[in-house]
């Protein structure tokens, strides 16, 4: 539903100030809503962040603002290599830096630069593909909680000789850091290209698994997290997670709750 209110003040006031005084959002967030084309006064879209509203005029925040007003923001990124998914170190570039209007696909406001959007699942600096950032605790529990059984799918290009024995070891029987790995689905899909489906996410797991059987990863792309697909989202672009996608992820079976 759109948010709507008629201004009844004695003197005109800047839109961003009035929205902040009304408890709708901060001034900075109001400016971001205006930039996203989500603010209208008497049916006219507001484009000037300095615009004032006068007594009797009605301000509407359209559906595009819904994701940014009190909602727990979740975004999908096609992460390029060279970008880190979590906290950067030593000049590294965090994935959150991609969350600009220039890189956006689809509707919804651009999250504030002050928003805290942790990654739901690791994707190391050298890897690329599907990355989900979210401040939604329920969603985080579903994807990376201790009882989560959401699987992740990767397309991996390797260097080295691939044979049936190596694939069998990758599927089951390897250890990392002294702990047995859960069974994985691994298949040869093209010359030097393997498809991995995992239900756990140890640090640089696929790269280390391949090293244990004499293979070197030269490209790694995550293409799926449970029911969420990377699809045709271009590399370096981002979009908001839809309500339907969130529901599908949250409803995904967890340990002890179905097959």
Describe this protein's structure.
By secondary structure, the protein is an alpha+beta fold. The chain folds into two domains: 3-68, RNA-binding S4 domain (Structural Genomics Hypothetical 15.5 Kd Protein In mrcA-pckA Intergenic Region, Chain A, Roll); 74-250, Pseudouridine synthase, CATH 3.30.2350.10. The chain has six helices and 18 strands. The strands form five sheets. Strands 7, 10, 11, 14, 15, 16, 17 and 18 form an eight-stranded mixed sheet that branches. A four-stranded antiparallel sheet has the order 1-6-3-4, with no helix packed on it. It has a two-stranded antiparallel sheet with strand order 2-5. Helix 1 (15-21) packs across helix 2 (27-35). It is elongated and about 80 Å long.
How would you briefly describe this protein structure?
The protein is an alpha+beta fold and 259 residues long.
Largest sheet: 8 strands, mixed
Coarse structural class: alpha+beta
Low-confidence stretches: 255-259
Find the CATH superfamily of the largest domain.
Pseudouridine synthase
Mean pLDDT: 88
CATH level-3 fold name of the largest domain: Pseudouridine synthase
Order of helices and strands: EEHHEEEEEEEEHEHEEEEHEEEH
* Annotation, overall tally of beta strands: 18
Key words describing this protein structure:
Pseudouridine synthase, 6 helices, 19% helix, 259 residues, Structural Genomics Hypothetical 15.5 Kd Protein In mrcA-pckA Intergenic Region, Chain A
């Amino acid at each position: 539903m759109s948010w709507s209110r008629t201004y009844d003040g004695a003197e005109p006031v800047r839109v961003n100030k009035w929205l902040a005084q009304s408890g709708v959002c901060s001034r900075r967030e109001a400016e971001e809503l205006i930039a996203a084309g989500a603010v209208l006064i008497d049916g006219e879209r507001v484009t000037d962040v300095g615009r004032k509203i006068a007594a009797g005029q009605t301000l509407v925040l359209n559906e595009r603002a819904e994701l940014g007003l009190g909602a727990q923001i979740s975004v999908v990124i096609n992460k390029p290599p060279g970008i880190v998914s979590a906290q950067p170190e030593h000049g590294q570039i965090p994935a959150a830096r991609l969350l600009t209007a220039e890189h956006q696909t689809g509707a919804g406001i651009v999250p504030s630069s002050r928003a805290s959007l942790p990654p739901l699942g690791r994707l190391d600096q050298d890897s690329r593909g599907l990355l989900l950032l979210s401040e939604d605790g329920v969603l985080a529990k579903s994807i990376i909680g201790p009882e989560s059984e959401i699987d992740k799918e990767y397309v991996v290009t390797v260097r080295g000789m691939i044979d049936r024995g190596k694939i069998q070891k990758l599927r089951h029987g390897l250890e990392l850091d002294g702990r047995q790995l859960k069974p994985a689905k691994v298949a040869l899909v093209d010359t030097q290209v393997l498809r991995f489906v995992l239900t756990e996410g140890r640090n640089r797991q696929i790269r280390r698994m391949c090293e244990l059987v004499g293979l070197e990863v030269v490209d790694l792309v995550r293409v799926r997290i449970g029911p969420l697909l990377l699809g045709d989202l271009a590399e370096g672009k981002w979009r908001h997670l839809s309500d339907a996608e969130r529901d599908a992820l949250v409803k995904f079976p967890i340990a002890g709750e179905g097959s």
